[in-house]
Amino acid sequence: MAAEYWLSSLPADTVLRHLVRLAKIRWRIEHDYRDLKHGLGLDHYEGRTWRGRHHHVTLVSAEQAFLTLRRPDPKRSTSV
């Protein structure tokens, strides 16, 4: 069942378009986190040191940033 209402602490005069954009950001974060875990191996680290985990997370984050920059913009026109 989809959410039929949202609770917010934003001012009552907040523009609906802005509220919807903020609500969609949550979905984008969840989507990116799922990609980090399943597509890029964020959850594959089984080491025991903080340094190793830090290196792993840093490399996975850099990989995700690279792939995000390489991903075509869906709103960009493809006509020449």
Could you characterize what this model shows?
The structure is a single chain. This protein has helices spanning 16-39, 50-70. It is mainly alpha-helical and 80 residues long. It has a domain at 16-65.
Described by the principal axes of the CA atoms, the overall outline is extended
Strand content: under 5%
Class by alpha and beta content = mainly alpha
What is the arithmetic mean of pLDDT? 85
Tell me the number of helical segments per DSSP (H or I, 4 or more residues long): 2
What is the CA-based Rg, rounded? 18 Å
Order of helices and strands, N to C?
HH
- What is the number of E strands? 0
Largest sheet: none
Topology of this structure?
Blueprint: H1 16-39, H2 50-70
Key traits:
about 55% helix, mainly alpha, 2 helices, about 80 residues
Structure, briefly:
The protein is an all-alpha fold and 80 residues long. The protein has 2 helices and no strands.
